[in-house]
Design a protein that fits this description.
By secondary structure, this protein is α/β, with parallel strands linked by helices. The protein has 7 helices and 6 strands; from the N terminus they run E-E-H-H-H-E-H-E-H-E-H-E-H. The protein is elongated, with a radius of gyration of 27 Å. The protein starts with a strand and ends with a helix.
């Protein structure tokens, strides 16, 4: 599929052919859902923790005599039934991550790229580079292009000046091609690829 290439100032800069096997698939929600769930689960900290009966700070002295009180038999104030006692079978630190094959992760990335292309929210630019790291200049260009929530994916490396200029612009993310992932692509309204980014992604996903 042929897509027009533009410069950051909005002028045309030719066109580029995008591989149908990467950008022309019929997007499948089930594949995208599985990959996003894998990403978010791996990112979850899993540091939740409560104190068990052996960890709460209470005396282990028997709180009252065994017989003759008319109440239930208790040995310590740390029992889960009492206020401030230990929690029974509460959460403990653990990993929420699960495995997903490399082949399936690549497939998910292909479907995410295809979804943006199908929605008409895929833009290809000539390059993402600047002579000076001027946030105001880049913000003006982004506004004129109409990108409100955009992800820019460059080649193997991101231009240092461009990364500095983009760092403080709300709603704009910049990633190298190896950082491209399904979650970040789907959560932004516009996906912007540089020509170097297109080549790197096609090489990565073949």
């Amino acid at each position: 599929m042929k897509v027009d290439v533009i410069k950051l100032d909005g002028k045309k800069a030719g066109s580029v052919d995008l591989g149908e096997e990467i950008f022309g698939l019929e997007p499948r929600a089930d594949i995208l859902h599985r990959v996003v769930r894998w990403q978010r689960n791996n990112a979850q900290a899993g540091t939740h923790k409560v104190k068990t009966r052996s960890e709460v700070s209470y005396s282990t002295k028997k709180i009252y005599r065994q017989k003759g009180t008319g109440g239930a038999r208790h040995g310590a104030r740390s029992a889960p039934i009492f206020r401030g006692g230990g929690v029974y079978k509460g959460p403990t630190p653990r990993s929420h991550g699960h495995e997903l094959t490399k082949k399936f992760r690549k497939l998910g990335l292909r479907h995410a790229l295809s979804a943006k292309a199908a929605e008409g929210r895929l833009v290809v630019i000539d390059s993402a580079s600047m002579d000076n790291a001027k946030t105001s200049a880049l913000a003006k260009q982004i506004k004129e292009l109409g990108w409100k929530r955009a992800l820019i994916i460059d080649g193997a490396d991101v231009d240092a000046n461009f990364a500095l200029a983009a760092r403080n612009i709300d709603g704009l993310d910049v990633l190298p091609s190896m950082g491209a992932n399904v979650y970040d692509i789907l959560k932004r309204d516009t996906l912007v690829l540089t020509k170097a980014g297109v080549e790197a992604l096609e090489a990565r996903l073949k």
